[in-house]
Amino acid sequence: MASAEPKTKETPPDVAAHGGTTLTAVTVDSFNAQLRDENGFIGDSVRRAAFFEIFDRWRALGDRKLSVLGDTPTAELSKSQIDEALADGRPHEQALIHSAIEEYACKLLAVIRHLMRTKDWRETQRIVVGGGLRGGRFAEIAVARTELLARAHDMDVELRPIRHDPDEAGLIGAAHLAPSWMFASFEDILAVDIGGTNMRCGIVRLNLDKAEDLSKARVRSTELWRHGDEEVSREQVVERLIDMLQKLIHEADKDDVRLAPFIGVGCPGSIADDGTIENGAQNLPGNWESSRFNLPAALWQAIPSIGGHETAVVMHNDAVVQGLSEVPFMQDVERWGVLTIGTGLGNARFTNRARGKAGEGKGGKRDERKADKKKD
């Protein structure tokens, strides 16, 4: 089993800083903001489970038979089932969903107002909403309703669902972590999206011949593991992740796909420039915030080369990476952010960089930040 806490003094090549604040296309003004009030983390009120808790309360108030949802417990409903009820259910059933949407939108607005009161989020012009909940039509309506509520409260901010499928956005965004010079000889990269419930690895086709700004990048193939359904250790997660990546590398070699020697990783938490996680990884199995745990180093040790070239691994916060998939479509605004709604609430705020600075040097650099590191 590959060790998650390497003992060797060898380190991966430094092509870009982990958790960088200055990337090729954007400055990352803030990510993983941990807003609190007297009840705890504010973001918990709009996590994926929060919507279903709200919906369950409204269902409990109803006393009529539901034509589409029937007696299925709320926690067992899929997003597609709720969407079907929203489209084809009886008025009473549709009203229950709309009531839950309205209440959830009010809570989401409260979170956005808290964020936009902070220094880093002031003057945000647009917010994209991604994460697992975004996949439902009812969630898209909740986002639209939140925007209307914001405007009713004199908040001049636009909200829109993330453009790509959320399952793919976290992979496509990883392309923006790589230094642009690496794209001169390669058309595909490996990407990893780690969440509190699922872990995805994929091959991303850059399609630079169609669009140099990565707007045509697409996921070529993926591997998925729902680790939240199993009792696993941190080390088992790392080992499974390595196996998934090696499978994709073998697949690429078999199909004559020339992979760049690069792995882009999106992971929950505040990512330090050395690849350790300072905080915010509490939803992952085991202690990912140990000062002796370094995921990028573990991946590099297990996969030291790709196609005969030394592997470079760059990791950033998962909300940042998912947000980066929107970079080509955010050129009409200057300051924008992303919210990812899943096991928890991820967030990041960006400022677009001048076009003339694109492609300079490394893929990112990081300002000096200090944080206490937790040990096992």
What features would you highlight for this structure?
five-stranded mixed beta sheet; 376 residues; alpha/beta; ROK; 8 helices; Nucleotidyltransferase, domain 5; single chain
Descriptive account of the structure:
With 376 residues, the chain is of the alpha/beta class. It folds into two domains: 22-31 and 165-332 and 345-352, ATPase, nucleotide binding domain (Nucleotidyltransferase, domain 5, 2-Layer Sandwich); 36-159, Nucleotidyltransferase, domain 5, CATH 3.30.420. 29% of the residues lie in helices and 22% in strands. It contains eight helices and 18 strands. The chain has helices at 48-61, 79-88, 91-116, 137-152, 166-172, 234-254, 295-302, 318-324, and strands spanning 22-23, 26-31, 36-37, 40-41, 126-130, 158-161, 188-194, 199-205, 218-225, 259-267, 270-271, 277-279, 305-306, 309-310, 312-317, 335-341, 345-352, 364-365. A five-stranded mixed beta sheet has the order 2-17-16-5-6. Strands 9-8-7-10-15 form a five-stranded mixed beta sheet. Helix 3 (91-116) packs across helix 4 and helix 5 (166-172) crosses helix 8 (318-324). Pfam families: ROK (PF00480). Residues 1-12, 357-376 have a biased composition (Basic and acidic residues). Belongs to the ROK (NagC/XylR) family. InterPro entries: ATPase_NBD, ROK. This is ROK family protein.
